[in-house]
Structures are given as structure tokens and as C-alpha cells.
Specification:
Length: about 210
């Protein structure tokens, strides 16, 4: 196994401002500086997008915002992470949390969409949606309305040997349920996985 396939070093960065503290990760120490800059640029852009999405210019002085991150996978040249942003506007009933996840092939710096994890032409939307429907029924999770299928670009991250499909607040469930997440073993969907994708790298026994 090449050295670069080992976990990459992560440094915590901070964005601060009035009533705002955002922690986010940056990759450091890569031998390939172009890949490092590409990955860190993608992460920084995602952090800023979350801030912009949460911040109403007319309520800046009334908004408290915090941000954090979790590293979900950091091995086999795969880095999968989630960025969370919580904002509370004073006098609101409750705050709002948004999560954005990113999954990288660390040998190239490319960030993968859900579609790119699967073989071209595979009906991954139906396959994943059917699995999620089974989990919803088994867990008896209350829904806002009947769940039909995921979006082609549905939010996800990779954790160990599982693909985690998740939904934002109010997407399919009431607020009190939080952000529902559905783990799907890579071996359950191995026949449609793009072997050259980050998910493909996790779908091997090592």
C-alpha cells in the first residue's frame, strides 16, 4: 500500500465573527500541493455556501451561528467528511441545522457526486430508494408525506464500508426527527458501484 493511501493529516480552521464560530477541516502535508489546494478550496467553498444559505442579510445582528465538522472516512485515498452549520435567529421557535458532505479521491482531489459513485446507466436512484423505503418501514419513521425516491444528487457520505444517505430537516420528516440517515452496506449494492470511485475503494475486503 502506497504511503498516500494512509490517512491524510487534518488541521482545524476557524471562521469567527460577531456571534459566529465556524470550525472546518483543512488537509495539510500532502506531497501533491495541487491536490491539497483543490481539496481545501472545495471545502472552503462549501463552508461559505452554508454560511450564505443560513444568513439573512436583514437579520445579521439577530443571528447566532456555529459550525463543526466530522471526518467520516480517511483511508484508502478516500476522504469523506460532513460540515454542519447551525443558525438561530433571536426570538425564533428554534434554530436550523444544515449539513453538507464532501467525498474526495485524495489521489486526484476530485469531489464525487452521488451519481459518480455508480456505474453509468445503473438505476442507482431506484436501488437506493427501495432500500431506504424498507428501512423507513422497519423503523416506523414518521414522514411529512409519502417517500417516493431520493434525488439523483442526494446528500451522502461514506463511513467505513457503508454509504450513508441522509436528508435535511423537513425534507421527508418532521423537525423533531432531526436529519434522518440511512446506512447502506457497500456489499448490498456492489454490483452497481463504480469500482474506480471512492465507494468502489471501500467495497473490497482488506
Amino acid at each position: 500500500m502506497a504511503f498516500d493511501a494512509f490517512p491524510v493529516a487534518i488541521q482545524t480552521m476557524t471562521v469567527t465573527g460577531p456571534q459566529t464560530t465556524i470550525y472546518y477541516p483543512a488537509v495539510i502535508g500532502l506531497s501533491n500541493q495541487m491536490v491539497q489546494q483543490m481539496v481545501n478550496g472545495t471545502i472552503s467553498n462549501a463552508v461559505q455556501q452554508l454560511i450564505n444559505q443560513q444568513l439573512d442579510p436583514q437579520q445579521i445582528d439577530q443571528t447566532e451561528m456555529t459550525g463543526a465538522y466530522e471526518i467520516k472516512t480517511n483511508e484508502r485515498n478516500v476522504l469523506s467528511l460532513s460540515l454542519s452549520n447551525y443558525a438561530y435567529v433571536r426570538h425564533s421557535a428554534h434554530g436550523l441545522t444544515i449539513i453538507k458532505s464532501l467525498t474526495f479521491d485524495m489521489s486526484t482531489g476530485k469531489s464525487y457526486t452521488l451519481k459518480e459513485l455508480f456505474k453509468p446507466g445503473s438505476d442507482y436512484v431506484k436501488v437506493l430508494s427501495d432500500i431506504i423505503k424498507e428501512q423507513l418501514a422497519t423503523l416506523d419513521i414518521p414522514l411529512i408525506e409519502e417517500f417516493n425516491e431520493i434525488r439523483p444528487n442526494q446528500d451522502y457520505y461514506i463511513a467505513d464500508k457503508a454509504l450513508i444517505i441522509y436528508f435535511q430537516l423537513y425534507d421527508i420528516t418532521p423537525y423533531y426527527i432531526g436529519l434522518p440517515a440511512f446506512p447502506i452496506s457497500v456489499f448490498q449494492i456492489q454490483d452497481i458501484i463504480n469500482e474506480n470511485s471512492p465507494l468502489g475503494k471501500m467495497a473490497v475486503y482488506l
